[in-house]
Amino acid sequence: xxxxxxxxxxxxxxxxxxxxxxxxxxxxxxHLPYSDDTLAFVVLSTPSMFDKxxxxxxxxxxxxxxxxxxxxxxxxxxxxxxxKFPDQKVDVIFDYEILPSRKPKFLAQTAAxxxxxAYYYQRKDVKLDPWRKKKIYGVCIHPKYGGWFAIxxxxxFPDIQVLFLEQSAPVDCVSTEEKRIELLxxxxxxWQDGRYRDIIEVKERYSEExxxxxxxxxxxxxxxxxxxxxxx
Length: 232
Known about the structure:
29% of the residues are buried. The protein has one domain. Helix 3 crosses helix 4 (69-83). It has 7 helices and 6 strands, in the order αβαβααβαβββαα. With 232 residues, it is α+β, with helices and mostly antiparallel strands. Helix content is 30%, strand content 15%. Strands 1-2-6-3 form a 4-stranded antiparallel beta sheet, sandwiched between helices. Strands 4-5 form a two-stranded antiparallel sheet. Its EC number is 1.16.1.6, 2.5.1.151. It comes from Calonectris borealis. Pfam families: MMACHC. This is Cyanocobalamin reductase / alkylcobalamin dealkylase.
């Protein structure tokens, strides 16, 4: 069962990890309540998601109530994944879910890093810190897509234990001090222009239509997908 599961999910842009890898790098308040050897997958959406998943989903669900097209699309497809394993318990945590304490249910970028999916560049990765007292947020960069991707959720299989799974390190694709400073500067102070996404040479990026969609305020995105007020 474990081999079949890994084979299927690796084909559809999931990156696998053990819960213990994630918990080991975080404070207890952020730990996932599963045993260390529990199998999990980080869910990534790549640039082609917009055309291959989102637009077909919207067209199919056009007459139903759609409140958040992307979130509902991701939920729909993860539900289909769960259906592939009727004999397995499958838990899903979405990137937008929070606990009663207002903490996120999981730290998406940390999960992507420990799974080897994307490198999570943070302030501590810069030796000569130029920012002094400024708050600096980290950002994940994918070796193929740069910043043109998103982390959508975490898929967990509580009854599957993978004792001998070997951890893969994420690709350090922004390896120089100068580039890391440039990346964090662009992400923290100029994120609107999206330049940080191209900090490396990428193989695929968002289409102009997709860029326009995500640059539009959420309440106005429906018309870009051809949705009416009734659909909303």
